[in-house]
Amino acid sequence: MEIFLQQLVNGLTLGSLYALIAVGYTVVYGIVQLINFAHGEVFMIGAFGALATYLLLFQGQTALWILPIMIIGAMIASVGTAVLMERVAYRPLRNAPRLAPLITAIGISVFLQEFVRLFFDKVPGTDFPSAKAKIPFPQIDVVTGRAFHPMEGVTIQRAAIFTVAMLLLSAVGLWWFVNKTKLGRGMQAVSQDPDTARLMGINVDRIIVVAFAVGAALAAIAGVAQGLQITNVNFKMGFIAGLKAFTAAVLGGIGNIQGAVVGGLVLGLAEAFITQYTGMLPDPFGQFGGSSWKDVWAFALLIVILVFRPQGLLGAKVVDRA
Amino acid sequence: MTVIDTEVQDGRARPQRGAKVLDAEQVTMRFGGLVAVNKVDFDVHEGEIVGLIGPNGAGKTTFFNCLTGMYKPTSGTVKFYGEVLPPKPRAVVKAGMARTFQNIRLFGNMTALENVMVGRYCRTTSGAITSVLHGPKYRREEAESRSRAQELLDFVGLGKSSELLARNMPYGDQRRLEIARALATDPKLILLDEPTAGMNPLETQQAMDLIFKIRDQGLAVVVIEHDMRFIFQLCDRVLCLVRGEALVWGTPGEVQSDPRVVEAYIGGSELEDDEDEVQA
Amino acid sequence: MNLPTLPDTLREQHSGKGWPLALVGSLLLLVSGLLSWSFDPSILGDISIAFWPASLQLFAMILGAVGVLLALMHRGPLHRLGDWFDTALGLRALGTGSLLFVVFSLVAIASEAGGLVNVNPGGWLALAGALLLTVGARFVPQRQLNSFAKAKANPVLEIVVIVLGMAAILFGAAYVLGRDDPWIFVGFLVMAAVAFMALARAGFFTWMSHVAQRHRHVLTLAAFVVAFLFPFTQDGSDANMSIATQVLIFAATAIGLNIVVGLAGLLDLGYIAFLGSGAYVGAMMSNAASATIGWKPPFIVVMLIGACVAATLGLIIGSPTLRVSGDYLAIVTLAFGEIFRLSMFNLDGNNGPDLTNGPNGIPGIPDLNLFGFDFGKPHTVFGIQLGRFSNYYFILLLLIGFIILVFTRLNNSRIGRGWVAIREDERAAEAMGVNTFGLKLLGFAVGAFLAGLAGTIKAHQDTAASPDQYIFLESAFLLAAVVLGGMGTVAGVLIGATILKLLPEKLRFFSEYRLLLFGLLLVIMMRVRPEGLIASKRRQLEFHEDDEELAQEVQADHLIDAAPEAAR
Ligand SMILES: Nc1ncnc2c1ncn2[C@@H]1O[C@H](COP(=O)(O)OP(=O)(O)OP(=O)(O)O)[C@@H](O)[C@H]1O
Ligand SMILES: [Mg+2]
């Protein structure tokens, strides 16, 4: 039972993180039918943005009020990156064959990782540490520190609570944005029928930028949460997180925002439980559990989902018109 | 069903009707709430040209898709020479049923000859290893495919265009090329989805001659058309579909004079209505 | 390399003056190479001596020679050739390019010797020549051209051109690999690129593709002879041969990938796993101390087993194509690739059965020994010593020959046509009786099989197999070789693979920025030339569906080969 509860906690934490990143895949896909493969890097840059803000302004401090400012720093970095890449790399390819944006995305992804790795310590006027190795992420009062033990054998990290709370907050904010603001409604209109939306006078280019920006903002939050959770950041952190978040987006039905959140949570839980319970099987099967096989299971799940349920958990099967 | 005699029309003797090639019973296709094809019975005999008419959105193309395995009908059976075929386009082609598309679907970046050679694919078998080794079977098959493809191009009147890219060809030629490609699969029954859409009167006349020529080769033909004059001159029997249902099914004369047909067209869209962007 | 074009009226007014200017410019460029370019004899392989051209001077002379050739084809003794080649466009490209090259050279001299004061008159003369050529070429009017499809073939001339071209490649490769000075190395590349562009603009390569169609066998033979001779130009040194073998493995794998991507039209982001499975099979069945399989069959058998294991994986990875396509398929293959790597990382006895030794991999794989021929020992042939890497080079050459054979023959067969049809319109292909799923699986299986073959050799050549060799980035590199070089062509992939492997090896100073530039390169390529440097005509058409002009051009040139002679 403790094991179950512990994995439930782990799964929800992990899932919240995936959900935050997955929204970025989903909003962009819903509008331009593009898998922004470089979104994982946007998340990574969010984490580095937060770190840079901290190092620049608050080095050595731990007060809680710093956190919102770090999140803002993270968002500036992420949103800036995402908007720039939309403008420079993706927009010119909007009518190109599907292969072109995908390869571009891989290019951007590699470029951004390397950019951070090579130049993080070369920002003029600062003495940031080199990003070639892991960099410790700042510890902040209240959200990091001693973990809770609600019962024997169950540990809840403070950062985990923070992550879940941020997901809730973001979900509410996102709901408000999509349904109550003009931009958000425009976004919905474009994703349902871009041509009509254009005829109705909606500036589709602008909506696309907004979609990239919204996704990036949530990824930035995820970046901070991840930094707090594993207490360090590194330039490679976006790759696997991005892939898994993409899985979550597909699981929830790509293009569907609520779906992305549900998908993230389901994926996180599935990953936690599969890893845990495979490890408890009798040998030789038990050897395939544990953290070293965790990613393998996540990827296997990804394949199974893409192959057998590409429309997601919530979506309906689409008939291929001939 | 009335048996059609060897009545003379258009100066051509209609050959005696042969065995039943295609037999569709109670074919129904639903898309969600929409019933695109509703319990349609249909049959085609050897050496016969059958027309399929109906206003836009009547379900003609969908019916074709059900016959050729592109869709799996919601209910009903399709028998080809008495056998039920699996709803797989490839199996259907292999059995001897080939089709063309309403909105031309040629392989644009292949030459005309290559397009037709793709049609030969299902009648050839050389695999990866013989292809790499250039074994005797490969050479024989390749030469055969090529000469057969050229023959078919000549047959449809495109003999000189074999090296043109399909996407560069004029519209009318593209339609004929699609027919040649379908013929390359050695079909016993060929289904043509609006073969004269967008053609001028001369081209339409040529298309009609071509269809007669195909029939004279011993093939059965099913044609979807909106051009009534064309259909009534060409076909031995005509099925009129309206909103997915078989309204009238009989000789051109019967269909032509049926008041329900006229009404369906006036109630639906106009008689000779060509502009349609509906999926093929 | 395109300057804004001149208004036509201006060009017509001065059309008479363009040609002499361009000719004089080219001659100046040619002559400048004979003069001294710098005071400092210690830099850039000594370009200080008059009448003894070295490095940059030689390159300038080559560009000058190309210019003279093009100019004389436009007007003068060779003007008949001008009916076929677009000399005006060629000269324009050459002009801009030469200017770029000379400026690059001057910068090189200045930075190596400390300032422009070190530039001798030769260098300035070259600059003047390049300027004249650039300006003159702008005013050279274009001529009415004949289509090569109507050209009468002159087999002897054509074969001579092929042989000369191949010899030039051999010579150039040996030369450039012998340069350690990065300035000279890059200078050579700039010069080669400029000459290439100029000839391409003039239509030389269109002609070559016709020639290649007529003399496919001669061309292939010549290419292999050149590749075969390459180790003999290295004086027994293994330094370049080591790079060359790496390029070959990489190219062989990339051509295999090109079957999947370029021919079958499927994106595979986990392709490195097939090379890896071949390598691991090779390693596990080798005589290495930590090899995990006791059975040691002869290497040929190991090769086949490795290839079959890879092909089986290929079938597994390909099976989702029944239901998935496009971007999703790409992600599925990526996931498979990662699962492969992680599994190799984990299967160390503690996490699952002991197959791969986990993160340490299987080191100490002994050299190949085929029929008593020890690949680890140097051998002397015709008095020239060939080292360990040369031995591997030869076996890899055989392998790549085989892979190219498979590639081209499949491409020209019924199966190749099926693949094109699937790429064009999968549903229509299916409706015409093409076994779409089977063909896609076949693409994956064949590609994987070939990569598996390469992998078994790679294990021995690297003397180790470890998981960190088979990361996603390597798959991305392979894909980049295909995308950069050209989809659906062998020559393109060879060039792409060479660029991607050779440059980082030769230009150590930028190795730190290698990946950064790589990422950038992908982004730029997709924008500028998504079909790659040397794309198959058909692929090019596919990437430019609305370019009617291109379609007419390709058709007029009969470059899509409806009648491969091989089938006759
Ligand atoms: N794959 C599909 N999914 C949902 N609805 C479909 C699908 N295919 C066809 N339909 C619908 O079924 C109906 C019949 O369409 P169909 O294309 O068969 O008509 P048609 O008789 O061929 O018309 P036209 O003369 O315009 O070609 C239409 O309302 C169409 O929208
Ligand atoms: Mg229709």
UniProtKB/TrEMBL annotation, chain A:
GO terms (BP aspect): D-alanine transmembrane transport; L-alanine transport; L-isoleucine import across plasma membrane
Q: Which GO terms describe its molecular function?
A: L-isoleucine transmembrane transporter activity; L-leucine transmembrane transporter activity; L-phenylalanine transmembrane transporter activity; L-valine transmembrane transporter activity
Name the protein family. Answer: Belongs to the binding-protein-dependent transport system permease family. LivHM subfamily.
Q: Where are the transmembrane segments?
A: 12-35, 42-59, 65-87, 99-120, 159-178, 207-228, 234-252, 259-277, 297-316
Which protein is depicted?
Answer: Leucine/isoleucine/valine transporter subunit membrane component of ABC superfamily
Please state where this protein is localized: Cell membrane
Question: Which keywords accompany this UniProt record?
Answer: Amino-acid transport, Cell inner membrane, Cell membrane, Membrane, Transmembrane, Transmembrane helix, Transport
Q: Which Gene3D superfamilies match?
A: ABC transporter involved in vitamin B12 uptake, BtuC (1.10.3470.10)
**Superkingdom classification of source:** Bacteria
The record's GO CC annotations read:
plasma membrane
InterPro entries named among the record's database cross-references? ABC_BtuC-like, ABC_transp_permease, BCAA_transport_permease
Topology with regard to the membrane? Multi-pass membrane protein
TrEMBL record, chain B:
Q: Which GO terms describe its cellular component?
A: plasma membrane
Report the SUPFAM superfamilies cross-referenced here: P-loop containing nucleoside triphosphate hydrolases (SSF52540)
The alphabetical list of record keywords is: ATP-binding, Nucleotide-binding, Transport
Please list the GO biological process terms of this entry: D-alanine transmembrane transport; L-alanine transport; L-isoleucine import across plasma membrane; L-valine import across plasma membrane
Question: Which GO MF terms are attached to this record?
Answer: ATP binding; ATP hydrolysis activity; L-isoleucine transmembrane transporter activity; L-phenylalanine transmembrane transporter activity; L-valine transmembrane transporter activity
Q: Which SMART domains match?
A: AAA (SM00382)
Classification via InterPro entries: AAA+_ATPase, ABC_AA/LPS_Transport, ABC_transporter-like_ATP-bd, BCA_ABC_TP_C, P-loop_NTPase
Q: Residues in domain ABC transporter?
A: 22-268
Name recorded for this polypeptide: Leucine/isoleucine/valine transporter subunit ATP-binding component of ABC superfamily
Q: Which organism is it from?
A: Nostocoides australiense Ben110
TrEMBL record, chain C:
The lineage's top-level taxon is Bacteria
Q: Which UniProt keywords apply?
A: Cell membrane, Membrane, Transmembrane, Transmembrane helix
- Record keywords: Transmembrane included? yes
Query: What is this entry's stated membrane topology?
Result: Multi-pass membrane protein
GO CC annotations, alphabetized: plasma membrane
Q: What is its main location?
A: membrane
- Compartment(s) where it occurs, according to its Swiss-Prot or TrEMBL record: Cell membrane
Task: List residues traversing the bilayer.
Answer: 21-39, 51-72, 93-111, 123-141, 153-177, 183-204, 216-233, 239-264, 271-293, 299-316, 328-347, 392-410, 437-457, 477-500, 512-528
Tell me the InterPro entries matching this sequence: ABC_transp_permease (IPR001851), LivM-like (IPR043428)
Keyword hit for Chloroplast: no
Q: Which Pfam families match?
A: BPD_transp_2
Single GO molecular function: branched-chain amino acid transmembrane transporter activity
Checking PANTHER family in the record gives: HIGH-AFFINITY BRANCHED-CHAIN AMINO ACID TRANSPORT PROTEIN BRAE, HIGH-AFFINITY BRANCHED-CHAIN AMINO ACID TRANSPORT SYSTEM PERMEASE
Give the protein name, as stated in the record: ABC-type branched-chain amino acid transport system, permease component (LivM)
